[in-house]
Specification:
12 strands; single chain; 5-stranded mixed sheet; LysR family transcriptional regulator; transcription; 303 residues; 44% helix; alpha/beta; 12 helices; LysR_HTH_N
C-alpha cells in the first residue's frame, strides 16, 4: 500500500471529490482514479460510493481513513529524522490568518529560512475556526491566530502579543471624545468566522446600531482601501494599519479596553510529536516575538 495512494485518498475526502483533489494535487484525474483503483484492488472492496456527481465513503473507506491519516503522518515524521548534530530537515505546514500572514510572519520566515534552508515551509490562510479544525485533524502543524484567549482542551496555545483593535474612518473625519457611530454609516466587515468581526458587531449592538448598510470582504487590504476611498468605516487590528495612520491616509481610534483583549496566539496539538524542524521554528517565533509588545506600546504612545 503506497503512501502516495493514501495521500490521494485522504485528499479526495478532504476536498469532496476527484476533480477538486486532482486540481489541488496538480494531477490528471486519470492519475487520481488510478491511485484509488490500486487501493481498492488491494482491499478487495470499493472505498467510495458514487451517487451521481457526489461521492460518499463506503464502510471500508470510513474504516481506512483514520489509518491513512496515521500512516501519512508517520511517513512524514520518518523523513524528518536527523542526528542531533545534523541540520533539521523536513516540512512544516503553517496556517495563519491573513493579517498575521502579511504583518507578523514575514520576518519570522526570513530569519528561519536563513538558518534552516533544508526545511520546506507551506503557508496557508484560514479563519480561526478553520485553522483550529485543521490542527485537530492533523492537516497543519502549527497555527497563528488573532483571537481572544480561550481554553483549549487538546491544543497548546502560546500568547505572543496583545493586539489592540482600532476603529477606522476616512481621513477627512474628525474624531472628538464623544464621537459615535451613526446608523447612516456603511460598515465594512471582514468575512464571517473572523474573530474580530463578531467583536465589532457586539460593540455596534451595544451602541444601538443595527448596521443594515454593510459590505463583507475577505481581504483586510480591500477594507483599508475602501475606508481610504470614503466608502465606509471598519475595525481592524492596529498592526494592519500602522503605516496608514502615520501617513494620515486613515483616521483611527483605539477601541475601548476589553476584559478579554485580542492576542496573537501560536497553537499546536498537544499530542503531536514536535520534529527538530518544528522545535527550531517555535524557538525562532519566540525570539522574534519577544519585542512585539514593546514596539506596539511605543507606537501607540507616538500617535
Amino acid at each position: 500500500m503506497e503512501i502516495r495512494h493514501l495521500v490521494t485518498f485522504k485528499t479526495i475526502v478532504d476536498k469532496g471529490g476527484y476533480t477538486k483533489a486532482a486540481d489541488f494535487m496538480g494531477y490528471a484525474q486519470s492519475t487520481i482514479t488510478s491511485h484509488i483503483q490500486s487501493l481498492e484492488q488491494e482491499l478487495g472492496q470499493p472505498l467510495f460510493n458514487r451517487l451521481g456527481k457526489k461521492i460518499k465513503l463506503t464502510e471500508v473507506g470510513e474504516n481506512l481513513l483514520p489509518y491513512a491519516k496515521k500512516m501519512i503522518e508517520l511517513e512524514k515524521l520518518a523523513t524528518q529524522i536527523t542526528a542531533p548534530e545534523q541540520e533539521p530537515k523536513g516540512n512544516i505546514i503553517i496556517g495563519a490568518s491573513e493579517s498575521l500572514t502579511i504583518y507578523r510572519l514575514p520576518p519570522i520566515l526570513k530569519t528561519f529560512r536563513e538558518k534552516y534552508r533544508h526545511v520546506q515551509i507551506m503557508l496557508k490562510t484560514g479563519s480561526c475556526y478553520e485553522l483550529r479544525n485543521e490542527l485537530r485533524n492533523g492537516d497543519i502543524d502549527l497555527a497563528f491566530l488573532v483571537d481572544q484567549e480561550k481554553p483549549e482542551v487538546d491544543l497548546e496555545a502560546e500568547i505572543l502579543v496583545e493586539e489592540p483593535m482600532v476603529f477606522l474612518f476616512p481621513a477627512n473625519i474628525t474624531l472628538g471624545k464623544d464621537y459615535k457611530f451613526s446608523q447612516e454609516d456603511t460598515f465594512l466587515y471582514t468575512e464571517k468566522g473572523c474573530s474580530y468581526r463578531q467583536y465589532f458587531e457586539e460593540i455596534l449592538k451595544k451602541e444601538g446600531i443595527v448596521g443594515d448598510d454593510t459590505l463583507e470582504f475577505w481581504s483586510v487590504e480591500a477594507i483599508k482601501q475602501c475606508v481610504m476611498s470614503g466608502l465606509g468605516v471598519s475595525m481592524l487590528p492596529l498592526m494592519t494599519v500602522k503605516k496608514e495612520l502615520i501617513s494620515r491616509k486613515i483616521t483611527g481610534q483605539i477601541t475601548p479596553p476589553s476584559e478579554k483583549p485580542f492576542v496573537t496566539q501560536m497553537l499546536y496539538h498537544k499530542e503531536k510529536w514536535l520534529s527538530p524542524a518544528l522545535h527550531k521554528f517555535l524557538n525562532t517565533v519566540r525570539s522574534e516575538a519577544s519585542g512585539w509588545n514593546r514596539e506596539m506600546e511605543e507606537f501607540i504612545e507616538s500617535v
